[in-house]
Design brief:
Elements: E1 2-7, H1 12-16, E2 27-28, E3 31-32, H2 33-43, E4 48-53, H3 58-68, E5 73-77, H4 83-89, H5 91-94, E6 99-103, E7 106-107, H6 110-122, E8 127-132, E9 142-145, E10 151-155, E11 164-172, H7 176-185, H8 191-200, E12 205-210, E13 214-215, H9 220-231
Parallel strand pairs: 1-4, 1-6, 4-5, 8-12
Antiparallel strand pairs: 2-3, 6-11, 7-13, 8-11, 9-10, 9-11
């Protein structure tokens, strides 16, 4: 299976709070975020890992080029206006197989992730979206489901009785890329609008609960992330 990482954000909030590393290179217990993520994907039998970063991160590009000597990495360096546009730039590497996408700052339990990937591989042509009931996000995307865990909607505000939010982990069939291309052509942006369009286009999506998923958006999240890694 193929994997993809969106690492094209500028990390402006972290920089304003005094973090000296670009987000992909923030060390968590001594290992850069992006290198930890690549390692997990390789242990989950990645055929390829496609990564997009921006032109303002030469240190990140340098690390990726070094890792590329021994690993099946596809590297795209391009500035994009949104995560959805970043994924669009990776389409040439993802067309022919199921794929798993995450943002670079998404932290999760590796054993949970392995089970998630195994479930997706065994599934039919459905998408499988990582969700969590651990809500520690400034602008969470709430996920509604039916009683079989099929996703029925993505919401900016929490409707009554909704338990889960999107965790930024997406396993999708290649057909989802047609929806993505149409979103770009129609002038849409933001990953959450792409996810909504998948439902409109009748791409079946199931929710897969993780115990905890952490995003690193602020300096205070780094210590929280390191403690989480030590505990799992």
């Amino acid at each position: 299976m193929n994997y993809a990482i969106i690492a094209a954000g500028e990390g402006s909030r972290l920089a304003s709070e005094g973090v000296k590393y670009p987000k992909p290179l923030i060390p968590l217990n001594g290992v850069p975020i992006i290198e930890r993520l690549i390692g997990i994907f390789m242990r989950c039998h990645a055929k390829s890992i496609s990564i997009i970063t921006n032109s303002k991160q030469p240190q990140t590009v340098a690390l990726l080029r070094k890792l590329q000597k021994d690993l099946p990495l596809n590297i795209v360096v391009k500035d994009t206006p949104s995560s959805m546009h970043s994924l669009y730039e990776l389409i040439p590497y993802l067309r022919n197989d199921k794929f798993c996408l995450t943002t670079v700052d998404t932290l999760f339990c590796e054993e949970e992730f392995k089970e998630y990937i195994n479930t997706f591989i065994k599934s039919d042509n459905k998408g499988l979206m990582g969700v969590t009931d651990y809500i520690d996000d400034e602008k969470p995307l709430y996920v509604s489901t039916d009683n079989t865990m099929q996703i029925t909607g993505f919401h900016d505000t929490a409707p009554e009785h909704i338990k889960y939010i999107s965790g930024g982990i997406y396993c999708l069939p290649p057909e989802a890329l047609v929806t993505l291309e149409n979103c770009i052509k129609s002038g849409q942006s933001r990953m959450r609008n792409f996810q909504r369009q998948l439902i409109i286009d009748n791409i079946s999506l199931d929710a897969y609960p993780f115990g905890k998923i952490i995003d690193i958006d602020h300096a205070s999240d780094i210590e929280k992330a390191e403690k989480f890694i030590q505990q799992i």
